[in-house]
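Q: What does the assembly look like in three dimensions?
Context provided by user:
Components: two
Sequences:
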Amino acid sequence: MAERPGVYLRLAAAGLRAHARRPAYLAVRTAAAAVLVVVEVAGVALLLDRFGSVGGWRPAEVLLLFGLAFAAQGLALVAGNSLEADKVSELVRRGTFDQVLTRPASPLGWVVASYVDVRFLGRAAAGAGAVVWAADRAGVDWTPGRAGLAALAVACAAAVVFGILMAAAGATFVTVQGSEAVNVLVYGGLYLSSYPMQIYGSALRFLFLWVVPVGLAIYVPALGVLGRQGPPGLPGWLVWLTAPVAAAFLAAGGLAWRTGVRHYVGTGS
Amino acid sequence: MSALIEVAGLRKVFRTHRGPVEAVAGIDFRVEAGEFVGYAGPNGAGKSTTVKMMSGILLPSGGRVEVCGLVPYRERKRLARRMGVVFGQRTQLWWDLPLQESFELVGHLYRVPAADRRARLRRLEEVLALGPLLAVPVRSLSLGQRMRAELAAAVLPAPQVLFLDEPTIGLDVEAKASVRDFLRELNRAEGTTVILTTHDLDDITRLCSRLIIIDHGRLIYDGTVERLRGVYGTTRVLVVDLAEDEPVELPGAVPVRAEGRRRWFEFARDEVSAAELIARLLAGYEVADLTLEEPDIEDIVRRIYRGESPP
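A: Here is the predicted structure of the complete assembly.
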């Protein structure tokens, strides 16, 4: 986005004003996004209560992971929901993306800014609420450092999810059809990362720590928030890698988007 | 001076599951600044593919294209600042917001200085009668109103070149006329180069100084509308209302249609003159009325599409 950021802020503001013209609808949808999280977290809480612990983690500790994941996903979707595969293939099929390309702006900036969706703040807020609630039940003693780690987890996981969405959108320019594989990563990967990493085999663990680092982004900082030791092979200092790895993944997602757009410009719809 | 648009040997090949398809098969033309060019051709001729390559949406497979001295796909954003686009079927405006906000966004996006923007908008609002519509959400505008708004938004940044795709499609007579008046005046007063892609040959004959026709990805005509009539329009039609319904033999003319007592005779203008033909007709039959029809541009173009060569 080499342009003045003001243009994209204006675009986003225009999108928000359009939403705000139907405030009741917006409020209901935002609330629904939040309620969905509450229901899911409650469901998991009920389930976990019957088992007592998962991989040595108490239910409240697991729910903290869930909360972090939902908060991150909500934030990523506020900006990136327009990058979901079916929405991108809609942009392509309707010719809207052709029009985006006639604008003096970055196509990514344009699409992201134009379709900012504040409804997902409902999901993010409910996720954050779940974090606070679970932390209370788990007896977390909030210090600035621990709050910082929780924020780090949310920010990094959001970056990774946004990276996945960009890569998926890039792939959609090639396949045109929306790809279900992406949803597996955005929703499935995040869901799996909501359980303590040690319950997974080494292959899955490697995947979510280093390939699609949602696990690294959520689980490793969460260890610090909960004051727990990681299992063997997951030393505490890994937390320093969270931000760089998430940034690298974000950059890779951006590259995939660019590649997709280049393919689109080469072949048309 | 170099041309505003230069297209040389331009090609585009699409890979499909049935093998490669050459949508644009090597076309050449130059458009000078200030020209108003109609770009026509049957569906699938390669019109929109060419326009996409000129506007930087699509990468050519071969050949050269330059617009405003820029290579469109490589300098897409720079070209976008100097180019206006109206694709008739789709909106460039912000659907859910009052029209006024679309103009403000366009102004910021294209970095039109605030003072210029206000002055220009005032003029556009006046010419296109947009004043009462500014507070109306775009979604509530009629098609004719919306098209006027699209044009205003497209030319607000004072583009050097304007690409129009079917800007009058679906409009009623009055709306069509106001769109055409606006375009003619824009081209005259500001010297904006206009490339008009359309199936509506009325648009072309009323607006364009030059017509380019392509078919099967190749350029098949490039010249004035007048010359097209001269080259292809060598036949005229004599329409006769007979006093009585009777068979008519008219040497030098071919009967092409009959309806009640009305008959249509086609004849070549360099073989027989209309006066001679009418004299022959009046000598043998009682005629209530007659009219002479000049070749219809629509007809001519249809014949070109069918692959008929000039007689």
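Follow-up: Chain A has a mean pLDDT of 89.
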